[in-house]
From TrEMBL:
One of its GO terms (molecular function) is glycosyltransferase activity. This is O-fucosyltransferase family protein. It is a single-pass type II membrane protein. Belongs to the glycosyltransferase GT106 family. Pathway: Glycan metabolism. The keyword Membrane applies. The chain crosses the membrane at residues 28-48. GO terms for biological process: fucose metabolic process. GO terms for cellular component: chloroplast; membrane. InterPro entries: FucosylTrfase_pln, GDP-Fuc_O-FucTrfase. It is found in: Membrane.
Length: 502
């Protein structure tokens, strides 16, 4: 064994030593030299080709030139995204979590408010949670509807926003978390004097309700302008919603001008408002059962006709048809129905469709496969209607809900697009008089027009009512602090220019 071992060792000693590994510098040097050699050979080949056969390599040379120019053109056509604004440096007083409640536009307004509150109190805001338990039961998260990266980056100079709480707080949140609902219609003083001191004890505060938690009026101008900045610049829909919404607008515009009619004659609206005018007895009972099925809906027994006479009900599709005709819209007007499923379906749309045959809905304009990804996601569907309504030539809401108000404000902000804000209390009176034969068509149409002559979305100031915030004009329907510097707002203090929507 020893002899064999020595022989084996002798043979091993005679083997050549393995090569030493190359250093990074050597590898880099070899690559550079190889590249120079290859390009030199190629240039020489082109030169020789030009001398002996001038057209032989001309095509190849032109192709290379075209490719180079095309690449440069692509770089020029796709500019780099604008640089991020410098982040605002501040000592955070704690973390603010918020859970939004309601439909898409109610939540949108709440997000704007909560960003502004976080800025006011020097807090770190966690990306808001969206409502998944309301009537619509939409499972969408924030980043399913809004471009979350744009939201965070575009506001970094105002407030630090994070996607989730740091793990150290998530693990031992216990006594560090306070759940609360801020007082409705509160000013900046409430948040500074009553909410901010709570962060000295609780590192995280969770606002479990956010609807209408900030006042419409009596706030600093900078506070109001930040609400606008969040609404009109930071809250962008996701690329897939933007793409499909733009496609809808393009299809409509290719067919001419169009009216967006926000026909809020949907089951949830009728059930919770108690408005059953035009419904059968069976339908009225169905809507009542739905209202009673939701324990948090406080108002149960509702007299429909009383609410309607006060202008507190959405117009029926039949009433909407008469009003559009009285306002002078012709039979060939293209009308986009911006809403969910109309209660009573096509049966209730028959009169409106007979008066205006060019009625369309998103389901009629888009391929079913385009909408398949949005099925059972009511907020994402509402986002499409929102985009079309903002882009429409004329916007007409039949009820002043959250979508109607936010679209109205958006159109004002973008240049006072025409929005006919229906004076429902007066319209109900005129409709009843006309339908019982007391008022002729010409008189009816004339009175309808006169009632809306100054309700077309013109510049105006919000009406403030001391101690009655629910009755005053809504900030997001008319955020005049955000555009009066760049628009002609002369004469806004004239009382006749206040918006009153019923």
């Amino acid at each position: 064994m020893e002899v064999r071992s020595d022989a084996y060792q002798l043979r091993c000693d005679k083997l050549p030593a393995p090569p030493l590994p190359r250093t990074r510098l050597q590898v880099w040097f070899i690559r550079v030299c190889s590249s120079i050699l290859l390009w030199t050979c190629f240039i020489q080949l082109v030169a020789v080709g030009e001398l002996w056969h001038p057209h032989l390599l001309k095509g190849l040379s032109n192709q290379i030139t075209r490719i180079t120019h095309f690449s440069l053109h692509l770089e020029q056509a796709s500019p780099a995204p604008p640089p991020l604004l410098p982040a605002r440096i501040y000592k955070s007083n704690g973390y603010l979590k918020v859970s939004c409640n309601g439909g898409l536009n109610q939540m949108r307004a709440a997000i704007c408010d909560m960003v502004t509150v976080a800025r006011l109190l020097n807090l770190t805001l966690v990306v808001p949670e969206l409502d998944k338990t309301s009537f619509w039961a939409d499972p969408s998260n924030f980043d399913d509807i809004f471009d979350v990266r744009h939201f965070i980056d575009s506001l970094r100079d105002e407030v630090h926003i994070i996607k989730r709480l740091p793990k150290r707080h998530s693990r031992k949140i216990g006594n560090q978390l306070l759940e609360m609902s801020p007082v409705s219609w509160s000013t900046d003083k409430y948040y500074l004097e009553q909410v901010l001191p709570l962060f000295s004890k609780y590192k995280v505060i969770h606002f479990n309700k956010t609807d209408a938690r900030v006042a419409n009026n009596g706030l600093p101008v900078d506070f109001q302008k930040l609400r606008c900045r969040v609404n009109y610049q930071a809250l962008k829909f996701t690329p897939r919603i933007e793409a499909l919404g733009n496609k809808l607008v393009r299809i409509l515009k290719e067919k001419g001008s169009f009216v967006a009619l926000h026909l809020r004659y949907e089951m949830d609206m009728l059930a919770f408002s108690g408005c059953t005018h035009g419904c059968t007895q069976e339908e009225a009972e169905e809507l009542k059962r739905l209202r009673y099925a939701y324990p948090w809906w406080r108002e149960k027994e509702i007299v429909s006709e009383e609410k309607r006479s006060q202008g507190l009900c959405p117009l029926t599709p039949e009433e909407a048809a008469l009003i559009l005709q009285a306002l002078g819209f012709h039979k060939d007007t293209q009308i986009y129905i911006a809403s969910g499923e109309i209660y009573g379906s096509e049966r209730r749309l028959a009169a409106l469709r007979a008066a205006f045959p060019r009625i369309v809905k998103k389901e009629m304009l888009l391929d079913p496969l385009d909408l398949q990804q949005f099925q059972n996601h009511s907020s994402q569907m509402a986002a499409l209607d929102f985009m079309v309504s903002v882009a429409s030539d004329i916007f007409i809401p039949t009820y002043d809900g959250n979508m109607a108000k936010l679209v109205e404000g958006h159109r004002r902000y973008l240049g006072f697009g025409k929005s006919i804000l229906l004076y429902r209390k007066r319209l109900v009176e005129l409709l009843d008089l006309h339908q019982n034969g007391t008022l002729s068509w010409d008189k009816f149409a004339g009175d309808v027009w006169l009632a809306h002559e100054k309700r077309m979305g013109q510049p105006s100031r919000r009406k403030a009512i001391v101690d009655k915030p629910k009755e005053e004009d809504y900030f997001y329907a008319n955020p005049h602090e955000c555009f009066c510097e760049r628009a002609n707002c002369d004469g806004l203090d004239d009382p006749g220019n206040s918006t009153v929507i019923l």
